[in-house]
Design goal:
Elements lengths: L6 H16 L9 E4 L2 E4 L4 E4 L2 E3 L3 H12 L5 E2 H9 L7 H15 L10 E3 L3 E3 L4 E2 L1
Antiparallel strand pairs: 1-2, 1-8, 2-3, 3-4, 5-7, 6-7
Helix pairs in contact: 2-3, 2-4, 3-4
Length: 133
Amino acid sequence: MVKPSSPTGLAARIRAVLRQRSGIGYLGQPEDCVLEDLVINYAERRVAVAGRPVVLTATAYGLLFEPFANADLLVTHEQLLQRIWGVGNSGEAGLAGTAVQRLRRKSGDDAHNPRYIFTEPRVGYRMEKPSST
């Protein structure tokens, strides 16, 4: 392992190793995870809704990845901030909320009647367990 140049770099490398160890995104994993008409292809890092490709930033993809990887579990604002934006952004729950709003718009999910991302007010987000194809 190459020596990281900063604590943020170290944290990013640790997250990458943990993702590899968890099997998410490994070539041996199922290609697609499906939740209703939302499809995530981890191997190709592609997302589609009702067969329509959805172009996501790295941040938006991370916001989908974290709740899917922890399906049926609550992912707190703090956990999202640390895993996606890094340790220095803790305490900025509004950052995650704004990014989730944008993600919902792109995926066609409605905050008042969600199908994919469910909000736990003032705590975080969760998603149902996807099926694999």
